[in-house]
Every structure is written in C-alpha cells, then in structure tokens.
Amino acid sequence: MSNFPFLSVLTVAPLVGALVVAFLPRRRPDLAKQVAFGWSLLVLALSVVMWVSFQADGDRLQFRESYPWIPTWDVNFTFAVDGIALVMLMLIAVLVPLVILASWHDADASKRSVPAYFALLLVLESTMIGVFAAADVFLFYVFFEVMLVPMYFLIGSYGGHQRQYAAVKFFLYSLVGGLFMLAAVIGLWVVGGKTFDWQTLTQVDISTGTERWLFLGFFLAFAIKAPFFPFHTWLPDAGRAAPAGAAALLVGVLDKVGTFGILRYCLPLFPEASKWFAPWALALGLIGILYAALLAVGQSDLKRLVSYTSIAHFGFIGVGIFAFTTQAGTGAVLYMLNHGLATGLLFLVVGMLIARRGSSLISDFGGAGKLVPLLAGVLFFAGLASLALPGTAPFVSEFLVLIGTFTVNKPVAVIATLGIILAAAYVLWMVQRTTQGTLNPELTEVKAMHRDLTLREKAVVAPLIALILLLGFYPKPVTDVINPAVQATMQDVGKTDPAPEVGSVQEAAQ
Amino acid sequence: MDEILTYAQAAEPAGAVTYAAADGLLSSVWLLVAIPLASAAILLLLGRRADRWGHWLGVAAIGAAFVLGLTSFFQLRGLENKSVELSLWDFITVGNLRVDFGLLFDPLAAVFVLLITGVGFLIHLYAVEYMAHDEGRRRFFAYFNLFVAAMLLLVLGNNYVMLYFGWEGVGLASYLLISFWYGRPSAATAGKKAFLMNRVGDAGLAIGIFILFATLGTTQYDEVFSSVGGLASGTVLVLGLLLLLGAAGKSGQFPLQAWLPDAMEGPTPVSALIHAATMVTAGVYLIARSNPIFSANETLQLVVVSVGALTLLMGCIIGAAKDDIKRVLAWSTVSQIGYMFLGVGLGGAAYALAIVHLLAHGFFKANMFLGAGSVMHGMNDQVDIRRFGGLSKYMKITWITFMMGWLAIIGMFPFSGFFSKEPIIVAAFEREGWTAWLFGGAALLGAGLTAFYMTRLFVLTFHGPKRWTEDIEHPHESPKLMTIPLILLAIGSVGAGFLLATSVPDWLTATAGLGGEHAEHAAVLPHWLLTALSLVVTVLGAGLAWALFRNGTATAPQPAGVLVTAARRNLYTDAFNEVVFEKPGIFLTRALVFLDNRGIDGLVNGLAAGVGGGSGRLRRWQTGFVRSYATSILTGALLVVAAFLAVQAGWLA
C-alpha cells in the first residue's frame, strides 16, 4: 500500500465531497448532512489505512508524491509526511466527522444555506490536510492562506454574537502573519538556490543575518497562528463567535499549523536562528502559560474561557519545542494531538450546553448538573483532560514537556509547572459556576435544559473520551511514531539530550 | 489488558536495591487495581440501570480485592526476597526516559493494601446503609471504588510516575466525594479548595520527579534508591523538600492543612475512609517509601520533624476549640498524621513506628468517624457536640465502640494508641541534644492535649445532660449493617496496636531502607519514665476535660480569650491564605482581564491599523467589505517586493 498516493487523494477527496454537498438542493438539508458525514468517514477510513502503512522506523518523510506546478519557479505539488504531520492528519480525520455530527443543527437557524455550511467544513478539511501534507514551501504557504477562507465564512456567516468583527479580525491577523511569511518564503527561494523543495532547502547554508530575518518572517506568522502571547487577542473573539464545531476545529487543528510550522520549517531550515531566538520563544511560551491561565480564570464567557485555556496550552507546546530535547519535543507534538482531542471535546461540550441555554455567559448557568447530569459529567471529564490529570492523554504530553525542559532549563520548567495549579483553578471554577451549587431558577424555565445528552451527542463525545483515556494509559503507539521525527528535528538543530548528572559523574570517574 | 500484560525481567543488579519478577499468584496483583476500577467503570457507564444493585457490586469489588490482597500477602511472606515487581507495559518511552506501567508488591505496599482494602471493605459495607436514602448512592459507590483503585495504584506503583498517577487519582476521587452533594455551594467550594491545595503539593512532587530524572536518569524506585547516594547533598535537600511539599498537601500538614477540615462536607463514610484512614496518610507513605532520600540528609529530616511537631500541636489546639463533631475528628487527624510525620522524620527505626501508628490510626479513626456518622444518623444529621449529651443510654453499641476508639487515640494502656504513639514519643526523646527536648516535649504535650480534646468530644456527646434540639425525641441506634463494621473496627482499636507493634517493624525490614536500627543515642530520659510521663499527661488531660464537661456545656458560643478565639479561627491560617493568596489573586486576574482587553488587544489592533495606514481604515475593515482588503493585499505585495529586493541587495545579510 505504500505506493498509493495517500496524501494527494486525502487532500482532494474532501474537496470533491464539498462540491457534491454544495450542489445538493437547499431544500434537503438532511441529505447534505448525511453525505458530508459519510464522506468524512471515508476520509477517516483512508487515513487509518495510511496510519497502518506508515513505517515508524522508516524514512523521515514518507508517501512522497511530486507533480510539477509552476516549473519556471520550481514550484511543485510535493506531498510527504513525517511522524509529526501524520499524527496531525489523523487528528483531522478523527475530528472532522465528529464535528460534522456535533454541528448537525448548528446551521439550521441561520439564514444561510445549510448544505453550504457542511461543504465549507469539508473544504476546511481539505485545506487542513493539504497544509500538513505539503513538502513544498510554496505549496505550504498557499494552503496556509487558503485555509483562512472557509474558516472566515464559517465564522462570519454562521457564527454568533459579533461574528463579523471576529471573522475579520481573525482574517486580518492571519493575513498579516502570512505576508511576513510570504516575504520570508521568497527570501528563502532567493538564498536557497531558487527552489521551494523542503528537503533541498534543509541542506542550504544561509548566512547568520539572513537566517535570522527569514526565521523571524516564518516565526511571526506561526506565532500569530498558534497564537503565542502577545498575538493572541484574535483567538478569544474568534473562538467565541465561531459555531462550536468550527471553534473546535479552529483551536483543535488550525492553530496547530503554527506550532507544526515552527517544527517543520523554522527549526530544520534555520537551526542557528532557532537557537538564537529560543530564549525569546521560551519567554513567550512561559508568559502564555501563566498569563492566559489567569485570564481564563477571570472570563465570564464560556467560549472565551476555553479559548484562553487553549492559549495557555500553546504556551506549553512552545516551551516544549524550544527546549530542544527529545522528551520535550515529543511531548510538544503529543500535546498538539492531545490538545486537539481534549480542547476539541471541551469546545463541543460547551457548545452543547450553550445550544441548550441560548447563552454562553457563565452567569446564566449554575447548578446545571441537576438538570443534565450526563452532560455535566462529560464537561467535567473534558475539564480534567484540560488540566492534564493522569489517566487522560494530556497528562503524558504535559509531563514530557516539563520533564524534558527541566533537564536543560530548570527555571523555565519550574515556572511552567505553576501552570498546572492555575489549570486546576480555571477548570474547577468553571465547572463549579456552571454545573454545581444552587440551581439557577432561570435554567429550569429553559425547556432544552431538561434534555440530557441525545444519542447523536453521545456518539460525538464517546469516541473522544475513549481516545483520551486510551492515550492516557497507553500512549506508546503515538509516541513511537512521533519520536523518530522529533529526533531528526533535534539533529537538524544540532542538539542532543543531556546525560543524567550523576550518571555522567560516574562515567567521568571511570 | 491481558494481551499487553508481560512479565517483568528481573531488575538489573544496579546496586543495593533489587526486586524479583512476580510470578505465580503474585503476578495477578494488578487485579487489585483493576477490580475496583472495573467496578467503578461499570457503575458509571450503566447509569440508573445499576441503581438497584450497584452498591453491592461496589462492596463486592472491595471484598474481592481484600481477599486477593490477603492471599498475596501470605504468598509474599513465603518468599525470600520479599519484594516482587510486575511490569505491565511501557508507559512512556522517549529518549532515555523510560517509565514502566509497573507495580511493586513488597512489605510496605502489602500492609497498605491490607489497610486500604480491609478498612475500606468495612466502610463500604457501612455506607450501603448510611447512603441508603440518598438518590446518588450508585454514583457514590462508583467514586468510592475509583478511590480505592487509585489509592492501590499509589501504593503499588514501582516508580514515582505511577505514584504520581495514583496520587492525582486519589485527589480526583477525594474532590468528587467531598463535593458529592454538589448542589450545596459549601460542598462544591470545599471540593475545589481540596483539589487546588493538593495541586500545590502535586506541583512540588512533580518537580521532585523532574529532579530525579535530570540527576539520576530514572524514576524507577530500585534504580533511584540504588544510586541516590551519588547525589550532592544540596540536591537531596531540594528534592526532599519538594517531596515533602507533596506529602504535606496530601496529608493536610502545615502549611497545606486548611483543606482537610473543610473536606468534612462530604458524606461521613468518605471522611472515615479517605480523610482519616487512608488517603491522607499517603504523604507518610511517600516519605517512608523514599526513606533512602530522606535519610541521606539531616537538615531534611529536621524539617520533616519540625513540620510534624508543629502540625501535631496545631491540630490539638484547634481541635480543642471546635464544636462540630466531624471537624474535631478532622483536626485530630491532622494532629495524628503530625505524629506520623514526626516518626518518619526521625528516621531509622522510627519509620516503622510511624507506619505502625498509621495502621492503628486507620482502625480507631475510621471507627470514630463511623461512630460520629452513627450519632448523626440518629440525631437528624446534627453535628454540634453542644447539642448532644446523654447518648450513651440510647446508642449503646455506638457508645461502646466509640469509647474503644477514644481510649485508643488518647493512648491509654492497653489500647492500640498506647503501643503505636508512645514509641514515637520515646523516639523523639532519642534525638541529639536540645532537639530531643524540643520535639520530645512537643510530642508529650500533644499527648496531653489529645487526651483533653478527645475526652471533651466523648463526654459532651455521650454523657452529661441532654442538650438536644427540640425536634429530637428518641435517638435511635443505627441498623446492623452500620453497627457490625463499628464493632469490628472497635476490636481493631483495642487489639491492633499490640499486634502491629510486635509484628510490623520486623515485617517491614524487607522493604528497602526500612530495616533501620534504633538510634545510637539513648533517650535523654529513661524509657520507663517517658512511658510513665505519657500516661500521666494523658490522664491529666482526660481528667481535666472530664471535670470541665461532665455537666455539659453552653449551647451558644461563649466569649473567649485570645488563644481560644485564635483556635476557633484555625489559628488565623485561613485568614492568612485569604489575605496573601486569594485576594491578590482575584485582583491580579481582574487587572489582567482589563489589560488584555484594553492594552494588548488595543495595542495590536493599533499596530495593525498603523501598518495599514491609519486607524480609520481598521474601522472600515471591520465592516467586512472585501474591497478594503485590496489595501492590505497591496501593502503586502509592496512588502514582499521590498523584502525581495532587500535580500537581493544583501542588506539583510
């Protein structure tokens, strides 16, 4: 199976599905939903086959395909994945069907076309797969920008309160970042011998000054995308305005392009600059962890709160990447996956609560556990995953990031560890204010608040809960795939793990 | 699980500490964790369908675990090297970090398994009746089983990450059970407080684990204990202090004690099992397990001893001023665990003494908590000891069994506390120089104070005139399902001390580092005199309380002096937390939210507007007209060309 063009097919397939769905009659919204859901399941099935075909101990980049596009500039449709990209592709393939299922009624109330909503979700899937599968820098850039379009419409056309403002803010922030990257992409093409091929470019020597400027161009785009402090203020607005499903994809997958880009482009292409900028990046990560967690505690809106927790988590990922150890790096990549599952779940569950209540304000809830015990239970579980409780997948990644960072940078790791206390604070306080305590009398008057999880909603949350628990107890299948890719990246940067202090003393004595 | 199960290879002979691979019956110790966990999962997943029989499944799971624990214990006794290891699967393998999902069954783990499942079984049985009228009984048993599973993982893990796994797991179960009646704001707040304070300790424990990996390259017990001698003294001190922070959080020791009394918001069986007999002793387990680390640094031991001595006195003083029966017992738990910390801090042979006291305490404190539950059951959930009195006539079994617990905790001969607490007092007097007087004196004073406040509790509840509220006419004794566990635990309160004190120290010598010799110093006072002194202060304390309270007490709060007022307010520790952490934290959060909305967002918006050519344009962008994007695209194109030229011209090189 390894000769099968997995990546191009996976990129194109959802797009074809989107076209089919878009041209279904508006009068038959259910048919559009079913086709979209079925299509996303096919993509998932193909992704599983690809996962099985991937050789964890094989080449760094696998499933490589290349087709010429603009020969004069040497731009090609080149696709290839390493373990890091593979994991992200799996995350997309798992999340999209669940998001479609969760969004079943999200577009019903909208004045816009229902089939178009689901078509947009599939377009988004296609562009997201493309961005992770690209192995040509220009192709990556194109997907990076095109990805904005479906998300812009999902937020701007189907979103909630202040959706226009949020959509434009999201678009502009990303666009500005993208422009910096475009400049750097062209610069890279010039100094790299007029090619966009990623593998060729990793071999190029670049002078220190140029390397730093190019790094900065890419890094700014990725830092805005992730987002890292202080480029984060678009996310709470977008996260709040977006429909819950789109928000889950936004923070679960789209934002990961930022951290993925740093791992795939900044570190291997500009290793010296990466090391030079590392202290600054670590500082941004640390600020993000503490600052965003404190802000999450203080939020009065559920979706904004989840957005801020997400920014704090991205701080952990940033620290993990720039610590340059295999544990921290593997932890960071695993974090990207686990955060997609956990925060994805949290956003979807919060969406279910908000859909019932018709409000996302925390103060409009209170004691909801009495009315919807199961939903409250799932919210609590998602919260536990978010605070990285052992037994849930995020614990493994957070632990790896912290322990890996500690071996090379004790102060950073110790300060980051304070984040786990704050995480408990924002999760538990959120849970307390929404589901515990005296029952808010206004809640009982809302009819929908008396309906606990439906079968469809159970089908959405159950796979995510199962995956979070499975990877919490047995993360090896994923770490085995990530590990070689991270080790290769660490080699690109020229960093090796420090030996244990006592061990090295004993060796020195011998 | 079976497919993944693989048997451990014998640990590498890296140094002094080695564990054999588990085989035969002992290779199924993983079931100890799996059975309660499976039961909890079934109860949670089946939902209301399990309401009718769910509690019996919960009881049966713990019963099965107890039987398995007991047979495993006898198996272990027959082995030469009484420590076996079972590696279930590779948990985390990245670079040179290898964490085993593995278990260790050795004498220390075995006594904890028996305590957790044995006392746990009795309390589960009691809870069947106690929670009979609660609509959430099935959910209660699910959480209760989850707790036992996590606690067993905590004591059975063969490395620090497994310990941490169980450690946070019991924290979760504790949270769920404290805020079990989540509709009550006070219960929800108490649960959150417990989890947060525990997380402070957990963060310390986590950093301790990071230090182990950074310095020794491993978190497995055998490898850590074999190579801990190579660590610099300063590293050991920092490592130990961090582990101590974790231990203090879980065990309600100073400065992280404030959550434990509030945890009494949970149902009484929870207070008995989790917040008295088992979970709160996890800190003692951590220090005893890590004894090769703690014994390697004297300053560290001094800190542990000081925390123990300070907390034991604090618990006594506050406990003497409280009127809520469960809170008095909670502060007495804080105080008794202080004795255990004192013991493990003293090191050497005192490690085993602390474990003996821990086990004995598990019996008599569970006994008294369940007794308190029985009293509340008969008195319409009244908890104020000023509104009890004269109950000895109405609840004979509760009265007699509680009396056994009372005599045990104050250390009266021949009840179990005498055999478990008095040796710790003696050991404290065996320290060098003036610290012998300081810590020995504290332990002795604590014994007198314990006798005082526990006698006060006992007399005000069961003797003296009736001071009941009007709604109570005839308090009733609890049903058999509640009194039978009480009787069994009372028997334990009488006999366990002597049996444990004569057997456990020998048994524990096979656990790495716990076979310590008696201190080389003789006690500063002769042994017989110390024994006599501790009995004298006990009788004095108890007698004073009897004299003061045998005629009852006022039912309204009385004006009090400085010390009593301070004690009623938990020695102002809560006020301190509020002023130093809570209030500034809330202020900081609010200030940051303001800053983020106005400052950062405004700044970046302004910057973006500046790039785009004036803030007026930003406002037009926000109208969503796509034509205005042309400006940004043009700007971008110019930027690209500029960058392109700059690179070409070599300006940036």
From TrEMBL, chain A:
GO terms for molecular function: oxidoreductase activity. Its main location: membrane. It holds the Pfam family Proton_antipo_M. Its EC number is 1.6.5.11. It comes from the Bacteria. Residues 134-419 form the NADH:quinone oxidoreductase/Mrp antiporter transmembrane domain. It is a multi-pass membrane protein. It is found in: Endomembrane system; Membrane. InterPro entries: NADH_Q_OxRdtase_chainM/4, NADH_UbQ_OxRdtase, ND/Mrp_TM. Keywords: Membrane, Oxidoreductase, Transmembrane, Transmembrane helix. The chain crosses the membrane at residues 6-24, 36-56, 76-102, 114-132, 138-158, 170-192, 212-232, 244-265, 277-298, 305-326, 332-355, 367-391, 411-431. PANTHER family: NADH-UBIQUINONE OXIDOREDUCTASE CHAIN 4 (PTHR43507:SF1). NCBIfam families: NDH_I_M, PRK05846.1-4. Belongs to the complex I subunit 4 family. This is NADH-quinone oxidoreductase subunit M. It comes from Micromonospora antibiotica. The lineage of its organism: Bacteria, Bacillati, Actinomycetota, Actinomycetes, Micromonosporales.
Automatic annotation (TrEMBL), chain B:
Residues 158-441 form the NADH:quinone oxidoreductase/Mrp antiporter transmembrane domain. InterPro entries: NADHpl_OxRdtase_5_subgr, ND/Mrp_TM, NU5C-like, Proton_antipo_N. It comes from the Bacteria. Keywords: Membrane, Transmembrane, Transmembrane helix. Signal peptide: none annotated. Residues 91-141 form the NADH-Ubiquinone oxidoreductase (complex I) chain 5 N-terminal domain. It is a multi-pass membrane protein. The keyword Transmembrane applies. The chain crosses the membrane at residues 25-46, 53-74, 108-128, 140-157, 163-182, 203-221, 227-249, 270-288, 300-321, 328-352, 358-376, 397-416, 436-460, 481-501, 528-549, 629-651. It is found in: Endomembrane system; Membrane. It holds the Pfam family Proton_antipo_N. The keyword NAD does not apply. Coiled coil: none annotated. This is NADH-quinone oxidoreductase subunit L. It comes from Micromonospora antibiotica.
